Each structure stands twice: as C-alpha cells, then as structure tokens.
C-alpha cells in the first residue's frame, strides 16, 4: 500500500481519489492548500492533476522543489498542436508551450499526456459557449481509462517515461457530435474546415498490456 498525494481535486482528481483510496492511503489538495512544511510532501507518490491556469508553472516548480518522491504529471496531448498527421511519443516537439515547459521541469518522472477528457457529464458536442467546430479525427479518452491506467502504472511500479493516453479509435468529431446530439437531444453545431491529427497510444498499450475499457469515443456515453 502506497501513500499517495493528489494535487488537484477537480473532475479527474476526485474520481481518482475515490478509486485509489480503496487500496492506498490518500490525500487530495487543491494547488493552494499545501504549504512548504506540510507532511503532504512525504507521500510516496505525488500525482499532479491540475489545469494550466492560475500560476501553473509556479505550482509545478514548487512541487519539484518540495518533493523528492515519485511524481506522476498529468500533461496534455495539446503539446502536439504544431503537427498534422499521426504523432507519438517519439515526435520531436519544437513549439514552446506551457505543457512543454512543465514537462521539462522534471526528470525521471512519469508523464501522462492526456487526450480530451470525456465521459459521464462531459459530452462531446454539448458545449455552452461554442457551436462552431473544425472537423477531424478526435483524440479523446474516457475518464475511467485514465484512472485505470494510473492505477495500473502504480501497481507495476512505473516511475518514469512519457506516454500518450488516448482511446485507440479516432472517429471524426462530426460523427461523435451527431451520435451524441441524437442520444442527448441537443442541436448539433456547425463544422468549418478540418484538422487531421491522430495521437497514438500504442506505447502505453504495449507497456501495460492494457485493454481500453472505452476504445471508441462513439460509445463513451
């Protein structure tokens, strides 16, 4: 049983806490609740699950300074934004981004580049403030699969490496929105243009011998 600290108790962090607390000792704090003298930093594993707002890089640097324990950084596939076509963890990233800066702060760290987080109340196509989209292959992942992969990584004692976490199937965004609009009864938005980028998750599948619970974003809901 490991002692695990989660920084970020949001949509992913709360669900992650609920799952991991079944077999581990858990603490969960938002990014401002820990202080320099907190015993939080003595946890065996620190999971960083926060968005890139509100002094994100300063928070990440603080974590690096205060914790000598194993770190799991939940990063994002938006780090591949400069590319078209298929990309994987061997793709050389040249464009500066906040995700890239955060990843470079750490060495010997497990970095998980999450696809678009979906499932449950997060329904693709049902947005309050946006009804215009570019079409193209989606790179989504269901929250349950993220949690399963993190749990399995801890069980298998994987302490370092960069892995993409994306469902292995990549239907068109317009197809996902159409299916969801019929299922949930909302009006489908409009599509103008196309962005074709497919993020491969084969590395994490091979490393963990992992079978996705939700491999197809058309069937997340």
Description:
This protein has 221 residues and is of the alpha/beta class. The chain has a single domain (3-219), classed as NAD(P)-binding Rossmann-like Domain (Rossmann fold). Helices cover 28% and strands 24% of the residues. The chain has six helices and twelve strands. It has helices at residues 11-20, 56-66, 98-105, 143-155, 173-184, 202-208; strands spanning 3-7, 25-29, 45-48, 70-76, 85-87, 110-114, 116-118, 132-135, 140-142, 161-165, 190-194, 197-199. Strands 2-1-3-4-6-10 form a six-stranded parallel beta sheet, with helices on both faces. Strands 5-12 form a two-stranded parallel ribbon. α2 runs parallel beside α3 (98-105). The two termini are 33 Å apart. 33% of the residues are buried. The mean pLDDT is 93.
Summarize the structure.
With 221 residues, this protein is α/β, with parallel strands linked by helices.
Shape: globular
Order of helices and strands: EHEEHEEHEEEEHEHEEH
Number of domains: 1
Largest sheet: 6 strands, parallel
The CATH homologous superfamily is named NAD(P)-binding Rossmann-like Domain
Radius of gyration: 18 Å
What is the arithmetic mean of pLDDT? Answer: 93
Find the CATH topology.
Rossmann fold
Residue windows where pLDDT falls under 50 for at least 5 positions: none
Terminus-to-terminus distance: 33 Å
Number of strands: 12
By helix and strand content, what is the structural category?
Answer: alpha/beta
Beta-strand share of residues: 15-25%
Helix content: 25-40%
How do the strands line up in the largest sheet? 2-1-3-4-6-10
Q: Give me the number of helical elements.
A: 6
CATH architecture type: 3-Layer(aba) Sandwich
């Amino acid at each position: 049983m490991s002692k695990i600290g989660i920084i970020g108790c949001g949509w992913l962090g709360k669900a992650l806490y609920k799952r991991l607390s079944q077999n581990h000792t858990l603490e969960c704090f938002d990014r401002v609740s820990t202080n320099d003298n907190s015993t939080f930093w003595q946890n065996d594993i620190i999971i960083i699950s926060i968005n890139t707002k509100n002094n994100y890089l300063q928070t990440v640097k603080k974590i690096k300074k205060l914790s000598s324990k194993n770190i799991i950084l939940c990063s994002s596939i938006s780090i591949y934004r400069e590319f078209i076509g298929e990309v994987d963890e061997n793709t050389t990233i040249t464009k500066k981004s906040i995700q890239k800066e955060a990843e470079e702060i750490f060495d010997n760290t497990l970095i998980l580049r999450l696809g678009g987080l979906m499932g449950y109340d997060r329904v693709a196509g049902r947005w309050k403030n946006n009804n215009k989209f570019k079409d193209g292959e989606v790179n989504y992942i269901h929250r349950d699969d993220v949690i399963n992969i993190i749990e399995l990584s801890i069980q298998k004692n994987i302490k370092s490496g960069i892995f993409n976490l994306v469902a292995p199937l990549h239907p068109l965004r317009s197809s996902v929105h159409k299916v969801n609009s019929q299922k949930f009864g909302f009006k489908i938005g409009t599509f103008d243009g196309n962005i074709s980028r497919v993020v491969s998750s084969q590395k994490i599948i091979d490393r963990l011998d992992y079978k996705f619970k939700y491999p197809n974003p058309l069937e997340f809901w």
